[in-house]
């Protein structure tokens, strides 16, 4: 799992935020997630994938109830993708999932992105590291390494790749690039 030091090495000191563990617990975050946010932290910006600087509501680090149709779930807003103000990542405080919520005039849709907050942070870190390490390599090498990364991430969190059109499946498809017909 990515450490605070690894996050800082990749994103910089100012590029990682730590939350106060006691304050997070007092707001209702489970012990494990409060510790994760206090000791490892979250990157403040990962191009396309994640930002703390979201526009509009709900605001980052706010608590709110979300109706699932069957129950009301308390969630903690983590941030959102960088290119869509209508999307938010949240932590399901009961189950520990990180979920991507899309809100719009027709209602809301939610997709489980990762099984845990630690998985979410790890995925952000590993994808960022992959981009940095493969920026100057041939496309074929970059694609091969992206396929290897997908295999490792899927082993860590199979739920993240449960569907071919899941958030992380689409991100990894983009990193892998187009497949040659003979490579299928």
Task: Describe the 3D structure.
With 184 residues, the chain is α+β, with helices and mostly antiparallel strands. It folds into two domains: 4-116, no CATH class; 119-183, no CATH class. The protein is 37% helix and 23% strand. The protein is built from six helices and nine strands. It has helices at residues 4-11, 21-26, 31-39, 117-133, 139-156, 167-176; strands spanning 16-17, 42-43, 45-46, 50-51, 63-67, 72-79, 87-92, 98-104, 107-114. It has a five-stranded antiparallel sheet with strand order 5-6-7-8-9. A two-stranded antiparallel ribbon has the order 1-2. The radius of gyration is 17 Å and the shape is globular. 30% of the residues are buried.
Tell me briefly what this model is.
The protein contains 6 helices and 9 strands; from the N terminus they run αβααββββββββααα. With about 180 residues, the chain is α+β, with helices and mostly antiparallel strands.
How many β-strands, per DSSP?
9
Instruction: Look at the helices and sheets and give the structural class.
Output: alpha+beta
Using only C-alpha atoms, the radius of gyration works out to: 17 Å
Total domain count: 2
Strand and helix order: HEHHEEEEEEEEHHH
Summed over residues and divided by their number, the pLDDT gives a mean of: 94
Beta-strand percentage?
A: 15-25%
* Helicity, as a percent range: 25-40%
Largest sheet: 5 strands, antiparallel
Uncertain parts: none
């Amino acid at each position: 799992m990515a450490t605070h030091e690894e996050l800082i090495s990749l994103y910089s000191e100012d590029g990682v935020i730590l939350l106060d563990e006691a304050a997070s617990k007092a707001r209702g975050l489970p012990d494990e997630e409060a510790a994760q946010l206090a000791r490892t932290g979250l990157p403040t910006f990962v191009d396309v994938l994640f930002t703390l600087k979201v526009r509009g509501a709900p605001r980052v680090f706010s608590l709110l109830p979300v109706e699932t149709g069957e129950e009301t779930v308390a969630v903690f807003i983590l941030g959102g993708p960088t290119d869509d103000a209508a999307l938010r990542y949240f932590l399901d405080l009961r189950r520990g999932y990180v979920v991507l919520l899309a809100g719009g005039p027709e209602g809301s849709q939610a997709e489980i992105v990762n099984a845990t907050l630690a998985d979410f942070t790890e995925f952000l870190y590993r994808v960022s590291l992959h981009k940095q390490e493969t920026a100057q390599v041939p496309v074929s090498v970059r694609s091969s390494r992206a396929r290897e990364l997908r295999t490792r991430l899927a082993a860590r969190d199979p739920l993240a790749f449960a569907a071919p059109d899941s958030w992380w499946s689409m991100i990894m498809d983009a990193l892998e690039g187009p497949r040659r017909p003979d490579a299928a």
